[in-house]
Write a structure and sequence with these properties.
Shape: elongated
CATH architecture: Beta Barrel
Largest sheet: 14 strands, antiparallel, barrel
Strand content: over 45%
Number of domains: 1
Structural class: mainly beta
CATH class: Mainly Beta
Number of helices: 5
Length: 507
């Protein structure tokens, strides 16, 4: 292998992994909420409620089991006015940013009801094909922050919600069951389980003289590469209050609050071991160097999730429902290191050893380069959605009517980053989403114990463009960028078209 391969391997390991949003956040946690453009956290959303507000599990009337598919296509436009310069020669690559996004996923949900007072739910999604690799070779190459390939991460969650007996306990002091369960106040707790990874890389390098007068090269030996899948936990707490608790006239008017704790996961330090010999073959200047050895521990932030507070309001009646959701995300705390030299899992320090003909030198490896944190900003996502529920039609011989729901919604997500005049070019324009969907509830079919529900939705997202201003002051101190910027450089954005289908049954 040549020096070019070495550069590619090192850049893949050292390139930044700033953040990415999970599919449930980019699109919606369920097909029903996709039809409402991710609005409706204070409405019945089955076990998918675990993602935003697990207290809404209390709105699921019966045990429920369901499966779903959500997928589509994402098109990121080419960056305009930016040319990547290869490290060797004058070759360029036209396509930027490089992405490998796979929004296809399958999901499964289950809700267990314990009377009128307790609900337990579990929700999991698995993407396909499952990809995990760094998709840009240099921290200065324009890369989309929100739409990286880690949209394909696995997600699992479990939650518990309990109704508080604020109107009294049935059977005591004359409180009836109907009075005790009027409206309701629910408190909940849930956890997210997502994968993380440990990577270990061992490289051996040997300097080689050029053949037939050609340029010298480096022979690379990849001795070992380990990828270990682990798990991380992110807690969520939720609250849901139905104003029908106060008076039956306000039944269906609900307020929901939920909080998801910040979660910043470092890849367990990447161990990069390099052993270079016969450097004299590369250039006579290195003739006195017998061996160069280095062990470096690199800490990379991956799968960052910010502190998030979600406020939801819904007016849910028999023939219609309206919902609005606000999500506050503290992205300003995102600090993604590009090459953060750290210690090993047991406190080991990296080292650099140089063996010369006349002496040996050993020194610790230190250094750090981080993306400017001032480009990250806190955001407020806004979603509006609704449902129309016309009267059902009862087929001949059926015990219950066939029910139809028609959904629509709009969502606005502001950009996570602001344009920077410095060398880094992280892309993230605002996102506008329009969605429609429908649901059909069929009464008991054959031997099935409960109603059978089919949900379908489609969502179009427009990724707004973003300028890439680069100033002389912002580039001060940078000797050579791997990319060249022209005046008016920009990212035209892109679009995403996603649809979903789910099948569920009330047991």
């Amino acid at each position: 292998m040549t020096r070019r391969l070495l550069i590619g391997v090192l850049a893949a390991v050292l390139s930044p992994a700033p953040a990415a949003a999970h599919q449930s956040e980019l699109f919606a946690p369920s097909v029903a909420s996709l039809g409402r453009a991710a609005a409706g956290s204070a409405m019945d959303d089955g076990a998918a409620s675990i993602y935003w507000n697990p207290a809404a599990l209390g709105l699921v009337p019966h045990d429920r089991l369901g499966i779903s598919y959500l997928g589509g296509t994402i098109q990121l436009m080419d960056v305009v006015g930016v040319t990547r310069l290869e490290l060797q020669g004058d070759e360029v690559e036209d396509r930027m940013p490089e992405q490998a996004i796979s929004p296809h996923r399958v999901g499964i949900e289950f809700v267990k009801a314990f009377g009128d007072w307790v609900r337990l739910g579990a929700f999991a999604t698995v993407p396909f094909p499952y990809l995990y690799y760094v998709d840009t070779r240099d921290p200065w190459t324009p890369v989309s922050l929100r739409w990286r390939n880690r949209v394909a991460q696995v997600y699992g969650g479990a939650g518990l919600t309990v109704r508080l007996p604020i109107r009294g306990v049935p059977g005591k002091n004359g409180v009836t069951e109907a009075s005790a369960t009027q409206g309701g106040m629910w408190l909940s707790f849930a956890i997210d389980l997502r994968p993380r990874a440990t990577i270990k890389v061992d490289l051996g390098l040997v300097g080689l003289a050029g053949e037939d007068g050609g340029d010298p090269a480096v022979d690379v030996v990849l001795d070992d590469l380990d990828l270990v899948a682990l798990t991380r936990i992110r807690p969520t707490v939720g609250f849901l209050f139905d104003f029908g608790t106060v008076t039956s006239a306000l039944d269906g008017l609900r307020l929901g609050l939920s909080y998801k704790k910040e979660s910043r996961v470092d890849l367990d330090p990447v161990r990069l071991a390099v052993d270079v010999t016969e450097l004299g073959e590369l250039h006579p200047l290195f003739a006195a160097v017998d061996r160069l050895q280095a062990i470096v521990w690199l800490g990379i932030v991956d799968y960052f999730d910010p502190h998030q507070l979600r406020v939801s309001l819904a007016f849910d009646r028999a023939r219609f429902a309206l919902a609005a959701d606000l999500t506050f995300s503290q992205w300003s705390r995102l600090v993604p290191p590009a090459t953060g030299v750290s210690t090993g899992p047991d406190g080991e320090e990296g080292s650099l050893v140089i063996q010369l003909d006349f002496q040996d030198t050993q020194a610790p490896v230190v250094g750090r380069r981080t993306v400017d944190t001032s480009v990250f900003r806190d955001t407020v996502d806004v979603s509006f959605g609704g449902e129309a529920r016309p009267p059902g039609v009862t087929p001949p011989g059926a015990a219950a009517p066939v029910e139809l729901r028609i959904r629509a919604g709009y969502r606005f997500q502001p950009p996570i980053v602001t344009p920077s005049d410095g060398p880094y070019a992280i892309l993230d324009g605002a996102v506008h989403t329009a969605s429609v969907g429908t649901s059909v509830r069929l009464p008991n079919l054959g031997k099935l114990p409960g109603s059978f529900v089919i949900d379908w939705a489609i969502s179009y997202q427009r990724l707004a463009p973003m300028d890439l201003p680069k100033t002389e002051a912002g580039l001060t101190g940078v000797e050579r960028l791997p990319v060249a910027y022209s005046d008016g450089a920009n990212w035209p954005g892109g679009w995403a078209l996603v649809s979903g289908l789910s099948l569920s049954i009330d047991l």
